[in-house]
Design brief:
Low-confidence stretches: 1-19, 396-405, 661-712
Oligomer: single chain
Radius of gyration: 31 Å
CATH topology of the largest domain: Jelly Rolls
Bound molecules: 2-acetamido-2-deoxy-beta-D-glucopyranose
CATH architecture of the largest domain: Sandwich
Helix content: 40-55%
Distance between the termini: 38 Å
CATH superfamily of the largest domain: q2cbj1_9rhob like domain
Mean pLDDT: 80
Number of strands: 15
Number of domains: 3
Number of helices: 21
Largest sheet: 9 strands, antiparallel
Shape: globular
């Protein structure tokens, strides 16, 4: 469930909830899409907007009725014992809800139950995707831009929309404040600005924004929880006998409880992202506590610390600070946690207790979304598993720390020029003398020959900058070129060998005893385009991290597709230094604070872990041609590079042929017979950005493929 709480629509929604006005949103949506497909743009825009209003109106009505019915007079007492006492109020609440919704929704509430597919479309802001096209066709640029932006915020992987937005940015009639998010989630905006102020040591502003974020988040949470109460979605309908009265009530109740518990994940997930920020509410309190102490308000700092302790009562640093605040404030100053947080924690604990009871006794399952759930709440049989998970995690942490003790390098003559400390970071290293001068020359010859061979291998504009040309060669492609006689076998083989040598070095240095597989290998040259370097401001490769999506505003790196999340280590093996620029640099998570730089030279291998600890980029190549082997590795066998297996097979085949006395002749026949039946290298790194079902198949926006982000 995505919270599509749209402030600008709420006013309209309130009007739309008066009887007789609220046409079910799925019907409006279907008509809108039909009009869209018929290219009736005006009608499409009108219907789609009405669909969004109706959707917001329905949610508003449900929310309002739940709140109103919660305030009803208690069920009149009387005889009937515990059953009447328990179920009487339930019936009363049900009656109240039915009356309230009946008053607000015409046609009847039961007409407002859209299919799951349509609800998903609304949760993903799909109507805005159609709307932007319709508005554009109607020449209503301002509305087209805000619809495009609203859609893109929730679908940042959507390439077509990215391009459309770029186009809008370049259009002269478009103002920058047209890029509005019509479904903005207020707590995320406040949270990100708050964290930015916090990181910039601007604690007064940080406090204001984080307080705003916390209170918006808590109120969004209430909305999400209210919507959990129904209508009940029957997962696998009809088939089964319906359970008995109490089992049915219990099952529905537990479903609602679990839904409410999951709400924190929705609130803590940035629009357009998949993964929730861990400990979202507690971390607000932790940040606020520190910020308040920095601006000199110990009273509020202590209150935040006390609130934080409700989640983690044994947290040593916070207990320590509590002690300090108590001394500073005087022993008789009352220090208490916030009411709102007490309420939040108590209610959550009550729900968890009930859910875990059902897990233990009713065969339910539960993925607890919180890290702070106290141990004693978790049933014994689950604890076992919980403990194992913790053990495993501890082991992994140990593994990471273990890496401090480096294994011996498996080759003679290689030097560790800089370690993590010298590179002002973690899990970074520079080796020298991995290749000899003559090996660098051979590999450069390979890039030259490959560039001259026809066969589709030609320098093209860099995907990152128009000021550079870009050539890339995979190991398989190199083998195929050798088979065709376009490059020398020994040079192609050297590419295989050099990358394997790098793999062994990196494995033994960072993860001795844990196998690293190739994930992708790419021999890459970047060439400055003559006459296009004047006043150039861009980078050869913008700052990014290799296995997560860097989000500098949020100071986060999202380990989710389309990033290559399974990549664990990255390396660059340099081949030359006769060019200008092209240095590698690492930054903080903000993507602008440079922490270390590495200058390319023949035989230098720089290696680092692929995660958020190592955002990096490449300075512009302003003259000449920079060549290097880009290397990515993974611990995951299933993501091992398949091309490499094929390349090695070709290599072996070649060796066998060489052993035959008339091997040379074979090469001639190879050339003519293979070139046509050659297996084509699969295009790498392309993933459909968008695989969902849409209403209407011949849309303007087809699912797009992402461009390989595989180029250093
Ligand atoms: C801390 O903030 C509270 C609420 O704004 C205020 O009432 C109190 O006076 C402040 N204390 C100090 C020491 O500034
Ligand atoms: C690490 O930081 C120091 C101090 O800012 C700087 O002088 C040094 O060049 C940095 N190291 C690298 C490899 O860039």
């Amino acid at each position: 469930m995505a919270s599509l709480l749209c402030l600008s629509l709420l006013a309209a929604a309130a009007a739309a909830t008066s009887p007789g006005r609220l046409v079910p949103f799925d019907l409006l949506y279907a008509d809108g899409v039909r009009a869209y497909l018929a290219r009736d743009w005006a009608r499409a825009a009108e219907l789609l907007q009405r669909a969004l209003h109706s959707y917001a109106g329905l949610r508003a009505a449900r929310r309002a009725c739940r709140a109103a019915c919660a305030r009803e007079e208690p069920f009149p007492g009387g005889p009937g014992g515990w059953e009447a006492a328990l179920l009487g109020p339930v019936l009363q609440r049900a009656g109240c809800l039915q009356r309230c919704l009946g008053r607000r929704l015409r046609p009847a509430p039961s007409a407002h139950r859209a299919s799951r597919a349509v609800r998903r479309d609304f949760e993903r802001r799909e109507p805005y995707n159609y709307l932007q096209v319709a508005f554009f066709q109607l020449k209503k640029l301002d509305q087209a831009v805000s619809a495009a932006h609203t859609f893109f915020v929730a679908n940042p992987q959507h390439l077509q929309m990215r391009e459309d937005i770029e186009k809008y940015r370049r259009m002269s009639g478009v103002k920058s404040d047209s890029f509005r998010d019509l479904e903005a989630t207020p707590h995320w905006e406040a949270y990100e600005t708050g964290v930015q102020h916090y990181d910039a040591d601007e604690y007064l502003q940080a406090v204001a924004r984080l307080e705003e974020s916390l209170s918006e988040a808590l109120s969004a949470l209430e909305e999400c929880r209210a919507l959990c109460e129904g209508p009940w979605e029957d997962e696998d309908e009809e088939e089964k006998m319906q359970p008995g009265l109490y089992e049915a009530i219990a099952a529905h109740y537990i479903q609602v409880l679990k839904c409410r518990q999951q709400c924190i994940l929705e609130i803590a997930t940035k629009p357009g992202r998949i993964s929730a920020t861990e400990d979202f509410i507690p971390s607000h309190l932790d940040l606020l506590q520190f910020a308040y102490s920095q601006v000199g308000n110990q009273t509020l700092a202590a209150e935040c610390a006390a609130s934080y302790l409700l989640f983690y009562p044994m947290d040593e640093p916070t207990l320590e600070k509590m002690k300090q605040y108590r001394t500073e404030l005087g022993e008789d100053a009352a220090v208490a946690a916030r009411q709102s947080i007490q309420h939040y924690v108590q209610r959550s604990l009550m729900e968890k207790k009930l859910i875990y009871y059902a897990v233990e006794h009713l065969g339910e399952t539960f993925n607890d979304p919180d890290l702070w759930t106290p141990d004693e709440l978790i049933p014994e049989n689950l604890k076992e598993k919980h403990r194992e998970d913790q053990e495993k995690q501890k082991q992994e942490t140990l593994d990471v720390e273990e890496r401090g003790k480096r294994g011996p390098l498996p080759f003679e003559g290689i030097a560790v020029t800089m370690d993590s400390q010298q590179m002002n970071g973690t899990q970074r290293v520079v080796f020298d003398r991995v290749l000899t001068e003559s090996e660098c020359k051979d590999l450069l010859r390979l890039t030259k020959a490959a560039g001259e061979a026809g066969d589709g291998y030609r320098a093209r504009r860099s995907p990152h900058t128009p000021h550079e040309r870009f050539e890339g060669l995979t190991v398989l492609k190199a083998m195929q070129l050798a088979q065709n006689g376009d490059v020398e076998w020994r040079d192609a083989r050297l590419l295989l060998q050099a990358s394997e040598k790098s793999r062994k070095i990196i494995e033994s240095y960072f993860t001795p005893g844990k196998k690293l597989h190739f994930s992708f290998t790419h021999l890459v040259c970047r060439t400055a385009v003559d006459g296009e370097q004047e006043g150039r401001m861009d980078l050869s490769h913008p700052v990014h991290a290799d296995n997560c999506l860097l989000d500098p505003e949020g100071q986060e790196c999202w380990k989710e597709p389309p990033a290559y999340v399974y990549r664990d280590y990255s390396g660059i093996l340099y081949l030359n230094d006769d060019f200008q620029g092209g240095g590698l640099f690492f930054t903080e998570m903000d993507s602008v604070t440079v922490t270390a730089e590495v200058h390319p030279k023949c035989g230098r291998l720089v290696a680092f872990s692929s995660g958020k600890e190592n955002p990096h980029g490449v300075w512009a190549v302003s003259r000449g041609r920079r060549c290097a082997v880009a290397l990515w590795y993974t611990h995951s066998q299933e993501h091992a590079e398949q091309e490499r297996v094929k390349a090695e097979e070709l290599m072996k085949q070649r060796a066998v042929e060489q052993d035959q006395p008339d091997g040379d002749k074979h090469e001639g026949t190879d050339r003519s017979s293979r070139s046509s039946s050659e297996p084509r290298a699969p295009s790498r790194g392309t993933k459909p950005a968008d695989q969902r079902q849409r209403p209407g198949s011949d849309r303007k926006q087809h699912p797009k493929v992402l461009r390989a982000r595989d180029e250093f």
